[in-house]
Amino acid sequence: TCHQLNKFPIPPWRNWLLGHTGMGQSTEQGLQQVDALVARYRHGCLWWGLPWLPVLRLFHPSTLRPLLSASGLVDPKDGIFYGFLKPWLGEGLLLSGGQRWARHRRLLTPAFHGDVLRDYLGIFNQSTRVMLVREPAAAAGGGPLELEVLQPLSLLTLDTLQKCIFSHDSHCQEQPSEYIQAILELSSLVVRRQLQPLLHPWWLYRLSSDGRRFARACATVHAFTADVVQRRRRALARLGHQAWLDSHRGRSMDFIDLLLLTKDEDGHALSDEDIAAEADTFMFEGHDTTASGLAWLFYNLAGHPEHQERCRQEVQELLAGRDTADIEWEDLSQLPFTTMCIKESLRLHPPVTAVARRCTQDVPLRDGRVIPKGVTCLMSIYGTHHNPELWPEPEVFDPLRFSPENSKGRSPSSFIPFSAGPRNCIGQSFAMAEMKVAVALALSRFVLRRDTARPPPRRKPELILRAEDGLWLLLEPL
Questions:
Q1: Minimal CA–CA distance to 31: which of 386, 476, 403?
Q2: How many domains does the chain have?
Q3: Is 425 annotated as belonging to a binding site?
Q4: Cα–Cα nearest to 157, from 113, 190, 192, 187
C-alpha cells in the first residue's frame, strides 16, 4: 500500500507525527488552501491525517472518473464522518452499501421520474410564493429589504419537502414547527460534533449535552416519520391496493405513498423501517443542499445585474399573456439562460464541497498508478470546479461556460455538483426543478442587489457551503 501511495505527490506537512492533521479547515482559508493544492498538483495529492490515516484528495476527471464510475456495490462511502448521521438517517440511500443499497436504489428511482416530479410543481410554486410574500412584508415604505437569504430559503426547501414526502403542511415558513426545528438542530449538531474530535466516539458523545440534544431531536424526527408511515400502511391494508389507488384520484401521490406501493422483482415490499429511513434521508439531503444552491445563486445574480436581467426577461417572456404566473413543468426546459446561471453558480459555489469514498478494492488509474484497497478518497467537488486546467479563470462567474457550444467535449466528471456515476444524487432533477421555480418567481417580483456596506462573504464549508456571517442581499420590489 505504501509503495502505491508514494506515487502520489505529498504537500508539505506539519511534522512526521501529525502529518497534515489540523491543516485542512472548514473555513475560507481552507478553501483557499484547496485552490493552492489544485494549482500545484492539478490531479490530486496524498494527505496524511495521521501516520496511519492516508487520504487521497482528488480534483480532476483523470483521478475522479474511476471512482465515480465504480459500481455502488464496491465503492461505499467512507464511514468516519457519515457515521455521525447513522443514528438519524439509518440505512437510507446515503449511508447504505452493498446489495441493500443496490436494491433500494432500484426501488426508489421511479419515485424521482419526471411524471412524479411534474405533480410536485404546484407545491414548488405554492411554497415559493409563501416565502416571497412573507419576507418582503417587513419592507414597509417601499424601500429595499435587507435580508439574510439562506435562512428563509432553508425554510422554503423544508416546507416543500414536507409536502412532497408526507403531504403535510406544517406552515413552517410562518410559524414554528417542532419537527422542522428538530431537523435544523440535528444538522447543526452534526457539524459541531465534526469539529470536536473528543466527541467523535459514540459512547462519549451520547453522555455529552450535545449528545442528549441529538438523541431528543432524533426521537422527534423518528416519531413523526414513523407515525405517517404506520398510518398509511394501516390505510393501505384496510382499503386494499386498488381502493387505495382510487382514493388518490384527483391528487398526486407523495413520496411515502410511492414507497409503500413499490415492490422488487421478487414481489417484496420495503419495510416500514426502510421507508422511514429513506424519508428521513430525503429530508436531510434535500433541504440544506438546495437552500445553499439557491442562496449562492441569488448572491451571484445580485453581483451580475446583466445576467440577472437576462434571466428576468427570459421568465417574463415565458409568462407573458398567461392567466397564471405559475411555472409549469413544460416551462422548465424553456429557461436555457437561467439554467446556465444555475449550473455556473453550482460550479462556483457547490453546496457540497467534497464527497468521501473508501475503496474496497484496488482502483487502477489510466496513468498506471493504483489507489489501494482500504484508502479513503476525498473527491473534491470544489477543487474540481475550480481547477484552471478544466475551467479557465475559475473564480469568474460566467454562465456561458454552459452554453451548448462551450459544453462540447467537456468531461462529465469536471462538473459534479450532484456527484456522478451509480451513487450520484437521486434527487438532482427534483432539486434543479425546485431551483428553477424559486429563482424564476423571485426574479419576477424583485431585483436582487448586493449590500455594498457589508464586506464580501467568507465561505464556510460545513455540511453545506455557507457564509460565516450569512449571505445578505437587498431585495427591491419591481
A1: 386
A2: 1
A3: yes
A4: 187
